[in-house]
Amino acid sequence: MFLEIEQLRKSYGTGENKVEVLKGIQLGVEKGKICVLLGPSGSGKSTLLNIVGGIDTADSGSVTVAGEVMQGMNDRQLTEYRRKHLGYVFQAYNLIGNLTVRENIEVGAYLSSQPLDIDELLDVLGLTEHQNKIPSQLSGGQQQRTAIGRAIVKNPDILLCDEPTGALDYHTSKDILALIERVNQKYGNTIVIVTHNDAIKNMADQIVKLKDGQIQDVEMNAAKVPAEQLEW
Ligand SMILES: Nc1ncnc2c1ncn2[C@@H]1O[C@H](COP(=O)(O)OP(=O)(O)OP(=O)(O)O)[C@@H](O)[C@H]1O
């Protein structure tokens, strides 16, 4: 398995206030697949994503990406791990306000020794004509496209998306999901999408349901639907 999560546990707080958020998560995702992670609010989806992303740390268990085990890495190694393996897309676009679309994407490129070709990527993103605008001159969808560009330009093995369409309307959401699908097909990155939107599972290769910090169900989806045909 390309991404392997073994017996992952995480609690917050201590003593009486201790809350067990992840209770022994066991999950594998194959290279180049799209995995959608569903579950009610508070089930631990973002916590799991943040641990895989090296933003948060687990109490026990392990995460392995391409044979590299994260647990036990020091700060420098974790930074290198994030740089080499991971791209992150959030609900809030977190762009740098005084840099253009192209410059925001270039920020991501600096983190890689082998970045993707920026002109080609701008074309894939549908942002060529907007490349010299700053974020305040863009729609929400265009800002999220830019954020996806910044995450993907270093051609990460894994793209983690936490509610990537949470702030967007129906049509723009479908547009962004179709872009994520296109990125997956063109560059072959493994993609994990956390969402509240049940319909998004239909575009996934693997559907994972989380409940109360445990995996309730894992389903391989043989009847994948293109993102643009999703309905909700
Ligand atoms: N830093 C923290 N300190 C204390 N508790 C936390 C912290 N981060 C998350 N939690 C708690 O962990 C639980 C799981 O949170 P998490 O954000 O992973 O859930 P989620 O499934 O992503 O929820 P949502 O869909 O609402 O984003 C929640 O009860 C939350 O209050």
Automatic annotation (TrEMBL):
PROSITE patterns: ABC_TRANSPORTER_2. It holds the Pfam family ABC_tran. The keyword Transport applies. Keywords: ATP-binding, Nucleotide-binding, Transport. InterPro entries: AAA+_ATPase, ABC_transporter-like_ATP-bd, MacB-like_ATP-bd, P-loop_NTPase. CDD domains: ABC_MJ0796_LolCDE_FtsE (cd03255). One of its GO terms (molecular function) is ATP binding. Residues 3-232 form the ABC transporter domain. Belongs to the ABC transporter superfamily. This is ABC transporter ATP-binding protein. It comes from Lachnospira intestinalis.
